Amino acid sequence: MGMNIYDLAYACALGISAPFWLARGRSRRKVLAAFRQRTGHVPPRQSTAPAVMIHAVSVGELNATTALLQLLRQRRPDLHFIVSVTTETGFARAQVLYGTDSGITLVRFPLDFSVAINRLLDALRPSVVALMELEVWPNFMLHCEKRRIPVVLLNGRVSTGSYLRYRRARLFVASMFRRLRQVCAQEDLYRQRFIELGTPADRISVTGTMKFDTAAVADRVAGQDELAAAVGLALPIADCRLPNDLHLIGNRQSAIGNEDPGQRIWVCGSTGPGEELIILRTFRALLEKFPGLRLVIVPRKPERFEEVAEQIVREGFPLVRRSRPDANLPDDAVVLGDTMGELRAFYALAEVAFVGRTLVDLGSKQHGSDMIEPAALAKPTVVGPFTGNFAEVMNQFLAAKAMQVVANEAELLAATEALFADRGTAAALGKKARQVVVNNQGATKRSAEVILNLL
User: Fold this and answer.
1) Which end of the chain is less congested by CB atoms within 10 angstroms, N or C?
2) How far apart are CA 405 and CA 2, in angstroms?
3) Degrees (nearest 5) of the Cα angle 89, 95, 99?
């Protein structure tokens, strides 16, 4: 198959942009690495079994694939799976999830040039391709259509920004959206947007968001006690539930015969630049009313661990790092969660949770982190206003009044203080959040049925 209009357009864009990225060392290394890794050079698949290719851009979308693969395997043990990603962090996470599984081939998604696409499709021979959220590429879609490989879009969403851009270019992108064999949209708003962009209405179903299915509804998390001991945290009040000897007085509780209800812990997870300082200032104010309160900060990106550690010390707080066990742990230190894969266990220790990358505007691609995890653990949860990447999820929490949204540092302090002051209200908020998670699970099962039908 020779070059087409998409290849020519990409080649022109590459030629025009080359002087800019070649002049910047970081951009040059990134672009050249992408060319080396994403030109479709992969070992040929030896198996003749039908294969499902699932493409997830990065970590968030990738985590949603685990339950999907499990369901598909239960129904079709003969299937082989191809999991593709775009980002380096996504590939690293894919290796953790699937790297030792002989029934799964991990690849980097090809650049949208015909030569790279054909090379990959020739080698891997997928029977069905499932793209996550909005990972539609015109050339890739074209070549799948030519090979009669059905393409389904799972967890489909069209943000307002993407919708406006695609609508302006509808003359050019409508054919791409028409090539989708099936769209599993997260909510009706997105269904309507897909129709307006060119997808036939009879190919779109509203299945909900798969993000709710990634969270395990539980009271406890394996390893949470060991984690608490390792960083010097006493066990908290279990799941923010009221002990039998707590009695309501007005809108508050008093402890009767229970002078030590457990250590009170505030866990701030997936934090981004600018948020840690706000959290530390808020924590200092909270200590005035709640002596003995403990703080756990878990930054979103591991490359920021050192930066956040220095900031904690600079603000005058003792520091305990999860990665560095210490027999002499100070009992008032701020805990830095500087390991990967333990955020859920930290949330399990929390009395109140804050979910980061929501209070400071870090750009639309970083608006929001996973607030479903603490909600599934029935933790009263606070987020900031920047949650665009979880818009459909937040719609469900807000409709049920199951999560608190704060606009700034002052509101963060007020909301967190109120939750620590009133355990009854905090427990009720956490219970409602968990119920939202339960009520919205099932999208993964519905998506799996779509793929099975296409097979």
Assistant:
1) N
2) 53
3) 170
Question: Percent of the chain at pLDDT above 90?
Answer: 73
Identify the CA nearest to 187 among candidates 166, 167, 209: 209
| CA angle (37 as vertex; 33, 43 as ends), nearest 5 | 160
Task: Please report, for residues 32, 222, 224, 366, the alpha-carbon distance to residue 342 in angstroms, rounded to integers and kept in the order given.
Answer: 34, 10, 9, 21
SS3 of residue 404 by DSSP: strand
Residue-wise pLDDT tens digits, 148-193:
999 999 999 998 889 999 999 998 899 999 999 999 999 999 999 9
Would you state the structure tokens that stand for residue 348, as one six-digit string? Answer: 């399990």
- Kindly report, as residue ranges, where domains of CATH 3.40.50.11720 are found in the chain: 32-209+442-454
Backbone phi, psi, residue 207, to 5°: -110, -5
Q: Which fold has domain 224-439?
A: Rossmann fold (3.40.50)
CB 55 within 8 A of CB 109: yes
Classified by CATH at the fold level, domain 32-209+442-454 comes out as: Rossmann fold (3.40.50)
Contact present, 270 and 353 (Cβ < 8 Å): no
- Burial environment of residue 127 by CB neighbours within 10 A (0 to 12, 13 to 18, 19 or more): middle
3-state helix, strand, coil in the chain (%, to 5): 50, 15, 35
Buried b / exposed e over 226-262, threshold 16 CB at 10 Å, is ebbebbbbeebbebbebeeebeeeeeebeeeeeeebe
d(CA 334, CA 163): 43
**Amino acid code (one letter) for 228:** A
DSSP state of 128: E
Give 110's DSSP letter.
P
- CB count within 10 Å of CB 51 equals 20
Pairing outcome for strands 294-299 and 319-321:
unpaired
pTM above 0.85, yes or no: no
Q: What are phi and psi of 128, to 5 degrees?
A: -140, 145
Run of H or E residues at 428: helix 423-439
Distance (Å, rounded) from C-alpha 198 to C-alpha 336? 48
Q: Which token pair is 89? A: 């962090």
The boundaries of every CATH 3.40.50.2000 domain in the chain are 224-439
For the segment 76-110, what is each residue's pLDDT rounded down to a tens digit?
A: 999 999 999 988 778 888 999 999 999 999 999 99
Q: How confident is the model at residue 448 (pLDDT cuts 50, 70, 90)?
A: very high
